[in-house]
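Residues determine shape. Take a concrete instance:
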Amino acid sequence: MQSSAQAQNKTEKQQQDDEVVRVNTELVQTDVMVFDKQGHFVDALKPEQFALKVDGKPQPISFFERVTAGSTSLEAGRAKTTPSSTTGSIVRGRTMIFFIDDFHLEPSSLVSTRKSLLRFIENGMGANDQVAITSVSGQIGFLQQFTNDKSVLRAAVARLLPETWSWSAHARLQWKLRLQQTLLFQCLKD
């Protein structure tokens, strides 16, 4: 009988030593863009220039960072006009997905779409942007992933080929192969 009492005391002591403390925290992340009365973006703001209120009560700002995103040309322009004191800011890219409805686009529209995508890849994409190109038909295959590698994105665009359902499957395949060879030659030539 005494041994069961000792075991019970030992269990009670373990329960007291193993108290669980639960802590709940909440992080609210908010993106802010500030413009002056003329509609121009206001840059180089500091945390003390902001007031955060929840239910009318001031709350501390625990974390504050400047994030920039945009195309390479915007980044170059920003670098010329931005004071050197902001060089420590984190430059985050954008995350974009281009979803192409290649089942319903006319071949001429698909050609225009491809040109626009290539123009964006070369001129509009920032160094830290993550881009994915995907299509209804799925013909892009494994290249349908987020990347900042322009050669992968160009290869994905090269796989966007018109679907002409009135053709026989064999004729469609032959046409696609010829077009892919032509596009590959053009990419290698450039």
